[in-house]
Structures are given as C-alpha cells and as structure tokens.
Amino acid sequence: MLYANGEYSLEQFIEDTSRVRSVERLFEVFIEAMANLGFDRVNFSVMRDLDLDASAQGFGLISTYPAVWQDYYAHNGLARIDPVVKWAVGSVRPFRWNDIEHQTELTRRQRHFLREAEEGGLYNGIGVPFPGPRTLRGGIALATSVRRARQMENLDVLAAYCHQFYVVYKRLVPPGLRLSPAAAALTRTEQDVLMRIAHGLSNEVIADRLGIKAGSVDFHVQNIFRKLRVNNRTAAATKGLMGGYIEL
C-alpha cells in the first residue's frame, strides 16, 4: 500500500481508475476518492491542453462547488482578480490557498476574495496545477465545506491522486479534432474584448470603451466562445487568463 488515508489508498485508487471505461464513471470515482481524503468540494478544469481533444476542454468540467458561489463568481467577473487562478498559472507544484497570502503581495480586493470564498463554503483550499511546456494546461481545486475538517496533509501524495485522474481522463477522451494554436488564436480586438470580459464589464460598456457597436461586441464574444471552446463569460475569462491569451 503506497499511502492510506481512511479507507481509500492511492494504490486502490490507481487500480480502480485503471478499470474505468467512461469519463462519467471516472468523475464519480474521483469525487468519491477526494471525499474519502477529506475534500468534498472539487473543481476540475482543462484550459489549454494541445494534446487533448478540444471537446474535452473547459472550465468546471467537474464542479461540486456551491451553486450560490458559482453564480456569485460568474456574475461579478471574479476570474479577473482570483489569486488562486493567478498563482496556478506560474506554479508547477500543489499549493494551499492560504499560503498565497504569505508568499505574494495581494491587493485588498484579492484578500477579501479569499474571505468571501470561505463564506461561500470553501475552506482549506488546495490547488493542483497541470503545467504544460509553455503555460498551464489546467488543474484541480479542492476544498472542504467546513472549516474544521480532517483532510490529507501531504500535498505531493494528494497531487499523485489528481495526476492519476488526469492521465486516465486523457486516455478516455474520444479521438477528434485537436486544438491547435492557430485554431485558438484570438484577434487583437477579441483580446481587447476578452480582457474587458475578465474585468466583469457588460457588452454595452465594452462597446463604449472600445468605440464600437454593442452588436459588434456580441459578434466578437461569440467568436471568443467558439475559439476557446467555452459557453459562458466566466469560462472565457478564466481560460483566457490561465491559457495565456490575455494578462490583467
């Protein structure tokens, strides 16, 4: 047995996931495994993995975060200031959310964001990035629904569970069109629009800022969604930041 926490060892997880034959079942096994390790809040995203089928990429492919928090995050365009996202972009190792405050200079709004996340039911947050050769491929965010919760302390072993999950996920994804840099390239105007989406601005405000019609902004937004393989503004902003399409 490589590592045991409660009743679910890493060895057993590897064995279980090796027998999985569908992405849906893999998600179920992974959520159950994380719950056994003390994390009942899970968010899995693939933002820019050039080896992965484009249809298998997106923000929140798994999300057991509270619906109220997800709506609040999206409505307020919090991807633009989320320090967890920013930290994950430059990280190759798993990290604790509360370590970010001690290891980097955060704005008052970013510190407030971390407190809001706790109020929204996300405690003891952990980030497990999947780094690529140039930028972040994606990652998994884990948290608990209560402050005082027993959870795995060894981040390297926890990351081993997550990376095993990702390896199996990539194996199960059906073959199809691949996402290439050329296919996902954004025009300068699309980058400008996406930047303002990340700041939480509406189409009307973006149109005023860029000096173009609101209908033109909507056209660019739809192109952004299509190129980034997303279907909402939060996912577009997050993928834009994590994938290196834009910088704030």
Kindly summarize this structure in a few lines.
With 248 residues, the chain is of the alpha+beta class. The chain is 50% helix and 13% strand.
List the helices and strands and how they pair.
Elements: H1 10-18, H2 23-36, E1 41-46, E2 58-63, H3 67-75, H4 83-89, E3 95-96, H5 97-103, H6 108-119, E4 123-131, E5 136-144, H7 155-172, H8 181-184, H9 188-198, H10 203-210, H11 214-228, H12 233-242
Helix pairs in contact: 1-7, 9-11, 9-12, 10-11, 11-12
Query: Got a strand count?
Result: 5
CATH class of the largest domain: Alpha Beta
Number of domain modules: 2
Q: Spans with pLDDT under 50 lasting ≥5 residues?
A: 1-5, 176-183
CATH architecture verdict of the largest domain: 2-Layer Sandwich
The DSSP helix count reads: 12
Helix content: 40-55%
The helix-and-strand class reads alpha+beta
User: What is the strand content?
Assistant: 5-15%
- String of helices and strands: HHEEHHEHHEEHHHHHH
CATH topology of the largest domain: Beta-Lactamase
Strand order of the largest sheet: 2-1-5-4-3
- Work out the oligomeric state of the chains in this entry: single chain
What is the CA-atom radius of gyration, in angstroms?
18 Å
Provide the CATH superfamily of the largest domain.
Transcription factor LuxR-like, autoinducer-binding domain
Q: Characterize the main sheet.
A: 5 strands, antiparallel
Mean pLDDT: 87
| Measured distance between first and last alpha carbons | 45 Å
- Apparent shape: globular
Organism: Asticcacaulis currens
Keywords: DNA-binding, Transcription, Transcription regulation
Protein name: Autoinducer binding domain-containing protein
Domain HTH luxR-type: 179-244
